[in-house]
Each structure stands twice: as structure tokens, then as C-alpha cells.
């Protein structure tokens, strides 16, 4: 059987499937002998593009009957006029309600034939003229007729491009503006009628304030029109006038809703200006200021309406200062969402998840928070405000564009749904309602694509846009920065005034004039970058004020911002991630170490938004990515540069996590140690690769804190180098080759740089600085057998293999074990010698003028005290206590305690002192940005160190606590180490 749709002579060719299609076409004179009549092809093709061709044809047939003898005129106009053809068939194929209107008033088709776009300026004159001199039912009928005719004209222009692509496309914003202007004209006409119907109307003045979508000029085809009334004179008369206007407009055009007035439906319909002002100043809730954002006078007394705005607008733009303002708005949105019936949330265009309210609440909240300082944002239109938020940097450009496109798409769907029967609906068709989906898709200008039906194209686009809206809503509406900005007083948002300087001084800035200069430099000009800075700085200033050094923090922020000015994601990250702003302020206001690295490793800034990423992986594996990356470079200089860059990033990450209190001390020390090891290994591998033939194998032995995995931010890398000749190579040639390699490694790592130094210290080697830099394993064996001194055995306690040839490194460790763990321990003379050396170190190496009670390394109870005590116990007892054979101070104390060599209380005192001194020494470096062992005892450096140590409120208490802790440890050391 032949498919009718493929038969050239079937109406199905034009998308007509109705059983009476051919009969209706013949009655219209468009079909004869199973084919279109001459001149009717264009009409039938236009019908085929209508959202519902069958519905459009039925409308034509009804209109033909209603016109009677007038049909030939319309028929000729449709044959000759593409504008009328597109408009009429689009309306008839979309809206049964507007088809009913045209059938009831058949001559009104002429209003659709004017090729010029509809002019909103004629709305009020036409409607007012229609009711001129009329009252009661006559006025209502006249107003309804003209209102519906103009509404039909707007709809016809809105839809025409769907039927005829060459017709002018009318954007959503223009359609919403026209509908709003028409509603305003209807209100004015209704007020004109009321003025005649209410006795003594001249005894009062009444201003009609549009709210909601009408106030914002973004009205739907079918919507309540929200208003508020302001009156003067006889309020009784004004109330009757307002009530009558609402009644006339409600019967003729749309429901007028005054529920947004003070006290809602329970409040007076009309209030004086003073009454409004008093209410909003004393009793209004947060949502009422949100509603006032869209208020504008539209009818009645213009001067009274203007005075109303002068009163309420300052209140609107101060509303964000109210306690819990942002949470209140967020809670209101959640309550609205909770009222959506179960099962309809995904189809509710207005109130559901990913619906219109998601966009509107987010935009309004951003306006109310940021509009206090940026007057450009003080506009009622959602789409226009969104564009300004994007242009001003309060929202990302892409986010603003996506939000705007999704909002316009959803509003267009809402318009098309309401046009069908002119009912106030926001419910998207069910997934299985194919006919309704197809009609809506075609009405929205969506068609089948690549084998996908129009209804499926619509479903895909709808879900995409709804998901997009919800994602952006949650990103923007619940942005932590909003609450932080809202907490800043409005006057503090104006950053260049004298009042701002006074506020900065009150916040604790020592040099408010200097701070203002930084602010001015960051916000100068009208660029998007300057606008974003203008939004961020008030929050940052408050956050920095809670840090030990607000002035230094602001200067550091300026340096970082200027260094990253061309980094596209920098300000976007600060704007969108409140956690980043909080953490960055804390870091910059405490540390000089962090900003120095941050300008050269900005990638770490992103980690501040993700605690897990900032804390990082297992510190024992931290060097693996660095080694892997560097191994891919064949060029020596590039390999070392890459190693430096990756070290810089890891240093900054660890320092940031450390200062923010996110990682324990062990993680910090192990991470710093393993990063150093990875850099050394990477550099050694790169030099060996570039050296050509390998004459000898090389192993690097970590010593000191590097060997114990207890490195600090300012620690050098103490190492020994051992080599072994390749087969057939003389020891001297091997040592010469290895020395050349090692010297090159040291030179590359020690090259001048702004980063913390990479100093490789080999002074603990046999014969110290006078001895060869690299020895063979046999040479070490001979030296330790004949010449080594007691201090060398002590130094070897912390030796461990860290880089190079692992097998050679392990043989070196086996070689030195008998030296550092002497059989039988130490005799009394050796113990006295160690004590003598320690006393000499205390007397000679403590810097002149240093305070021994606060010197973290050599002071009383400091690092050296604890470490020498543990090392003495290791030399005495490690031969019989295997657990003492560890390069770690921490594990050494634990092993000595378990072996009964020291009491648990003494061990606790030693560990508390060692941990405190290590953390304090690290804190000094982080605060000052340079190495240092002496704790500051006054000023902002002390406050910053105390803050980093967990004493943000009382630096003096921190110093007292440090001294108490080290005094207790010193007492233990006197007994355990010195035998007192």
C-alpha cells in the first residue's frame, strides 16, 4: 500500500493527517483534483511548517465559516502576503485560544497583515481610547477585545519565523518587553475606567507600582500582574479606586495581584508613602526586599511613584547587610522548591530543579549582594542583570552566557505552552506525550535532526538546559563568597574614600594610606579584572585583618595579583571558590615564604579549593612523579629546570597545607625530605645520562635530618658520595669520573635562583672539607677501619641510602653498621668525649647575642639537645637493642623508651620539645621567608609564628609555652645525657 505521506497528491505531504483535511482544503479553495490549486502551494507549505498543521487548518476552516462573504479577501491576502501567511498560520497552529478569538472576531485578521513590527507606543493610546467614556461591563468588554487583539498581534510576530524562516525573529527579551508594556497599558486603561466609576476619585492620589515580571519587563503571555499601591489624600477613596482598577483589569485582561504589599493580603491595600517607609524599615522580611528589586511605577500619579522609588531603593540595596540575609534567600528558594508536587519537579519549568526560579533567585541574590557597590547592577531585568554580572566579573563569562541562553530557552517554552490555551501553566509535557512534545518543539523552532524526531530533540535540549541551570544555580547561588561579601558593611565596599582609610585603621592595618594605594592599583580602570578585584577586596580586607600581618598580606596579594594578571583562571578561581579566598588570605597574612613561591608556582593556588589535593598523597611516594617527569628530558638543563619547578610546587603545597594546619609534622618532614631526595636523584640521573660512557656506579647516602627523613624548610642536604669502578676501570679513574659527576650535580642544583636554596653539603665525609668529595667503597672501608673518629660514628647514625646505585648504597650501609653501632657500646672515656664535644658546641656555636631559651636548634632543650641525647643512647645500646638502629630521632626515642633506657615521662618531655622546636623552626622560615633558628620575641613576626603554632590570640603565651616545654626537656637531658 502506498504511504499517503509520500504521495504527491495527498494532503499528508504537507503534514496534514486529519480525516477531514482534504475536505477542509477544498472548502478553502486550496485543493482540487487531488492537488493544490493554482497559487495555494505557498499556503500549504506554510501550513506544513506550522507547529500543528491539522490544528492550523481547522482554525482556517472555522475562520472561513465565520467570515462568510469576507473569506475571499482573506484568501487573497494569504495567497499574496507572506507576512500574513506566516503570522496567521503560526497562531492558528499554536493556540486554540487565539484561534477562538479570531473566529469570534473574524475581521481582526487585518491586524496581523501590517508588515511593520508592532509598536509598544500605541498600546496605551489604543486601550485608553477603547474605554473612553465607558464604565462597568461595557468598559470591560471593550478593554478585553482590544487587549486580546494586541496580544494576538504580539504572538503572531513572535511565532511567524517558525512558519517562515525569512520572517523577522523576535527575541525572548523583546517579546517579554512587549507583553509587559501591553499589561502596563491595560492597567492604565483600567485605572481610567476606575477613575470614572469611583466617586470623589479626585480626592486622592494613587500610584501603581508594578512588581515581579511586569516590573522587570519580562512578563509571560499568561501571568498575574503583581502590583503595590501608594496613596495620598483620602485613603478610603484611593482603596476603592485601586480595588476597582484590579476588578476591571482582572475581568478584562489578567488577574492583578497585590499580595506583595506590606503584610501581604492581611495588610491595607493602599498605604501612604510614610506607611510603606515605616514598614520596610522596621518589619519587612528579606524576601520583600528581593521583590522590591523589580519595583517600578507604571500607572497613576507619576510624581508619587517616583517618590516611592526614592524611599525604597536605598533600603533594597542595604538589605544584604541584614543578619543571615544570604541564608534567608537560600532558604526561601528551598521552600519554593519543596512546594512542587512530587513527581512533577523535573517537568516544572518555573519552580522545579533547573527551572526559571533557579536562574532568577541566583541573579537576584548576586545583584543584591554586589549591587550595593556597583550601581550598574541595580536593574530589574533578569537577562540584562545577568549580562552585567558577567561583564563585571561577578559571574564567569561562559557561565553568564550559558545561564542566559538556558533561561531564554525555558522562558520560550513557557510562552509556547501558555499560548496553546492561554492558561497559566509551567508544566513541560510528559515524556510519553509525543504529540504534545512535537507541537511544542515545532512551536519553539526545533525540528527533526539527523534521524532524531522533533520531540526527542526537544527532550534532549530541555534536559540539557535544565541540568545546566541547576549546575550553575548551585555554583552561584550557594557560592561561599556571597555570604562573605554580604557580611562586609556597604560603606566598606567603597574602597577609595576617606571613610575606607578609617575603617582599615580600625581593622588593624598599620598603614591604611598604603593599603588604599594597593587597593587603588588593583581596582584602577574599568576593566573586568578591576571589577572582580573590586568585589573581592572588601572580603579579603576583612579576612586579612584577622591575620598577624594585614599590611604585609595585602602587599603580598597585590604582588601575586600583578604577577598573575595574565593568568585567565586566577581571579575566576578566587571569585568562584570561597575556600580559596579564605585560605589565601590566611597564608598571605602570615607568611612571606608562600607568596614568594606562589608567583612562580601559581598552579598550587587551585589546590586550595580541594583539601584532599592540598594534603596530597602518601609522603613516602611524593617524589615519584618528579622523578618520572624529569626522566623524560634528554637535555640536562631542561631536566634540572623541570626538577626545580616541580620541587617549587611541592614546597608550596606542603607549606600551604602546613600553615593551614591540615597535615601533621611527620608528613611535613617526610615530604620535604622525599622531595629533596627526588630532586637529587633526578639531577644525578640527568648528569649521568649526559656524561656518555659510565665509568663507575655512584650512590648517595643521606645524612643528618635528610637521612632521618626529618628535614625542615631551611635544612641543607647532608650527604656522602660513594662510588665503585666499572669492571676493568682503576679506582683513581672511577673516583675522578664520580667527582666530576657529583660536582656538576652540586653546581646545577646550587645555581642562583629565587627558590629556597638547594645546597648539597658533603662536609660530613671522611676528613671533612679537606678530604676527597667522592671515595670508593674500599676507600671508605680502609678509612673507617683506621682513622675514623667518634664524631663520625655519631654522624653515621643517621646515614641511609637515598639515590644512585641502590645495591652499592646498601653495601655502604652494611659497611658502616659496625662503626655506628659499636660492639659492646661505648666505654666511659668515649661517653665523656661526646659530652665534651656537646658542651663545646653549646659554648661556641650558639650565635653571639642569641637567646638560648628561644634558639630552636642550639638552645636549651632544642633540637640538638634532644638529638644528641638519642644518639648517645644509640651508640651505647644499639648493638644489643636492634630497634635503636634507626636514623630517625622520633623512632629512636620510642625504641629507647620501649627498651627501658629512659622513662616514659622523660621520653614524652623529649618528644614534645623536639616536635615543638621543629615546628617552631619551620614556622620561622615560613613567616620570614628565609632561614632562621631564633624565635622572634616581639612584633608581628612573633604573632605570625604564634599563629602558625596554634596560638593566634596570645603570642606571649606561645613563648611561655615554648620555654616551659624546652625547660622540661633540658632537665631530662641533664640527667640522661650529662648524667647529672
From TrEMBL:
Entry-linked NCBIfam families: PRK14109.1
Organism listed in the record: Saccharothrix longispora
EC id: 2.7.7.89, 2.7.7.42
Transferase recorded as keyword: yes
Coiled-coil ranges per UniProt: none
All copies of domain PII-uridylyltransferase/Glutamine-synthetase adenylyltransferase, residue ranges: 331-477, 837-977
The entry's keywords: ATP-binding, Magnesium, Multifunctional enzyme, Nucleotide-binding, Nucleotidyltransferase, Transferase
Region (Adenylyl transferase): 489-980
Protein name per the record: Bifunctional glutamine synthetase adenylyltransferase/adenylyl-removing enzyme
A Pfam family reported for this protein in Swiss-Prot or TrEMBL: GlnD_UR_UTase
Reaction(s) catalysed by this chain's protein: [glutamine synthetase]-O(4)-(5'-adenylyl)-L-tyrosine + phosphate = [glutamine synthetase]-L-tyrosine + ADP; [glutamine synthetase]-L-tyrosine + ATP = [glutamine synthetase]-O(4)-(5'-adenylyl)-L-tyrosine + diphosphate
